[in-house]
Design a protein that fits this description.
The protein has 5 helices and 5 strands. It is of the alpha/beta class and 145 residues long.
């Protein structure tokens, strides 16, 4: 199972539709779900919510703007390896104020999609697209480049 643990709800209809589309596409390859947590100005409250979903037996990834950047092929390899080894991958998207050091220290890996800033809903859509792309790459299926 792949779980995306995200703070906040999607408000824009066009993003909601894109997210639903990619969830449907990914589910043809692997089970995936999004867990939406309540965003809060207090990151300690967000921390408590996130900690409930970190999987001790699964592989936990934090999306972190200051972390290592991976290519789509790297993400495909990572997805394949970690699902095979751990069975579950949890991907955490922190709130607008970031996450606590406790969260940063509890995850197995931190990755970045670059130094740009984007709205959380759009980032969630981009993340889903990259997960879908990873399955296409891993299955040697064509997908636009």
């Amino acid at each position: 199972m792949i779980r995306i643990i995200a703070l906040g709800k999607i408000k824009e209809k066009y993003l909601e539709e894109g997210i639903k589309d990619y969830l449907k596409r990914i589910n043809k390859y692997h089970r995936i779900e999004i867990i939406e947590l309540k965003d809060d100005v207090d990151i300690l409250k967000e921390e408590k919510q996130i900690l409930k979903y970190l999987d001790k037996e699964g592989y936990n990834i934090l999306m972190d703007i200051n972390a290592e950047q991976l290519s789509s092929v790297d993400i495909a390899h990572l997805t394949s390896q970690k699902l095979m080894k751990y069975g579950n991958i949890n991907i955490i998207i922190g709130g607008s104020n970031g996450v606590t050091d406790i969260i940063k220290n509890k995850v197995d890996q931190r990755i970045s999609f670059g130094l740009i800033t984007m709205p959380h809903g759009l980032f969630r859509l981009v993340l889903l697209e990259q997960i879908y792309r990873a399955f296409k790459i891993n299955n040697n299926e064509s997908y636009h480049k």
